[in-house]
Write a structure and sequence with these properties.
CATH topology: Thiol Ester Dehydrase, Chain A
Shape: globular
CATH architecture: Roll
Largest sheet: 6 strands, antiparallel
Family: Belongs to the thioesterase PaaI family.
Number of domains: 1
Strand order of the largest sheet: 1-2-4-5-6-3
CATH class: Alpha Beta
GO molecular function: fatty acyl-CoA hydrolase activity
CATH superfamily: Hotdog Thioesterase
Oligomer: single chain
Keywords: Hydrolase
Protein name: PaaI family thioesterase
Helix content: 25-40%
Number of strands: 6
Distance between the termini: 22 Å
Low-confidence stretches: none
InterPro entries: ACOT13, HotDog_dom_sf, PAAI_dom, Thioestr_dom
Mean pLDDT: 97
Number of helices: 3
């Protein structure tokens, strides 16, 4: 598995509007994936704050890529639960979206995501997820 293969999964498995987020694979290990969500005026609210909807979509996407890195291939899955807590606004900087698989069984997978500022490293959003493996 390479960064390029995971990056290619974005085009292969995700809807065009998700691709429009401009996510870039920064790094991965088995069961993790870190993506960069570029600062973008179309994803921002007043004052350059990144909107929560973009963070949630990026978190969900990063976890699917973490599952790919965990299994070594794409396995069809669907989000069962995405619980998100917004800790503070993220303004005028890219976001780093770090997803980690906590446990993956035969039918369910569990993970957590931390979103932080790419410049200041401060955590702005935490999420936990459950996926059904199809």
């Amino acid at each position: 598995m390479t960064n390029e293969q995971l990056q290619g999964a974005l085009a292969e498995y995700f809807a065009p509007w998700v691709q429009d987020l401009g996510l870039k694979v920064e790094s991965f290990t088995q069961g993790t994936a870190t993506l960069r969500l570029p600062q973008n005026a179309r994803l921002s609210r007043v004052g350059g704050m990144l909107c929560g909807q973009a963070m949630m979509a990026a978190a969900d996407t990063a976890m699917v890529l973490a599952l790919i890195s965990h299994f070594g291939e794409f396995k069809p899955c669907t989000t069962v639960q995405l619980n998100t807590s917004f800790l503070k606004p993220l303004s005028n900087q890219d976001a780093l979206v770090e997803a980690r698989v906590l446990r993956a069984g035969k039918s369910l997978a569990f993970g957590e995501i931390d979103i932080r500022g790419a410049d200041d490293g401060k955590s702005v959003c935490r999420a936990s997820t459950t996926y059904a493996l199809l």
